[in-house]
Predict the 3D structure of the following.
Amino acid sequence: MPETIATRISTARGPAVAARVGIALGVSITVCFLTGLISHWIQHPPTWFYWPAHPVWLYRVTQGTHVISGVIAIPLLLVKLWAVYPKLFARPLIGNPVRMLERGSIALLVGSVIFQLVTGLFNTAQFYPWKFFFTTTHYAMAYVAVGALAIHLAVKLPIVRTALRRPMAVPAKSEAAQQDTSPREVRTQGISRRTVLGTAGIAAIVAGLAVAGQTVPFLRRVSVLSPRSGEGPQGVPINRSAVDAGVGELARNPGYRLRVSAGGNQREFSRADLAALPQTESTLPIACVEGWSAGARWTGVRLRDLLTAVGEFHGGDVRFESLESGGLYRTSVLPGRHAVDASTLVALRLNGEDLTVDHGYPCRLIAPNRPGVLQTKWLSTIEVLS
């Protein structure tokens, strides 16, 4: 490394700090990756994937953990980059093919992780200053980031082991060094390693708490950066309003009818018809992919009872369609295990009041342990698929 740089590097920069912060960063990235896979597979289920209807709060926990672990990774990544930054100036800058591959893999790792954290953070605020589709791009880049992380760990494992075995304390200076009081020596000491690690830990905890309140209600007062406060119409936040969906007039139309197909039969229900059927109350959280969630009391017709009122229903997947004329989530498919669950409703009321149009009036789906984007609002049709 050039002398002009080497003499100015803090003793806190190096493998000792990088290895320890890297472990915490690796854990947070791994947790974020695994919980992200769960969310993606729920929305786009492979044939082998199984997601239960109970416990009803499970998706609330996994997706909240996904966002919190991603936010925690941000300060850890910054400290990690601070600790290894001088290595960018190590000689030779390019070197042999092996060194080129090593540097290339590090560039891929850093670039993909930064991309994932920045775009994920923007997504929690529903801010999309790009033209690509966030969901598929974020999912694909997750594999790039984790693959690059695995390669990086394999290459750096010997260095990590050595760094972890060494004591954290900075080695004592020699007698000659103790007598040297030049400005160069003072600059070399700098901040201690323990201070850097302590600061990194505190920053990670503060970052997590700053957004955790949108998932954990009792933390809402300290979660100053949460995009959702937990408040909204009828006590529940909304992501997509009726105006955004373009369904305001259709939803309020007195001629509205819900078309239900089951057992080879088809029947239409007005909202008054639905309200005249036996009503059930379910206490279920609504949890969105952006990480926020809120518990609520929903009242409406059990889906299995509604389907049985139309025709024979012995289980199977059920497709729901919204009054929306377009949009990626205007339809959803509810797996059979959720369709037959007693807490799955075609909801008419929320927290003791009729649904507002922004919450899905005249009726909406609410099912346990499902992402909010799959809890279809402004229902127009329900059809048993199998």
Q: What stands out?
A: Strands lie at 258-262, 265-269, 280-287, 293-302, 318-322, 331-334, 345-350, 353-354, 364-366, 379-384. The chain is about 45% helix and 15% strand. Residues 134-165 form the longest helix (32 residues). Confidence is low (pLDDT under 50) at residues 171-188.
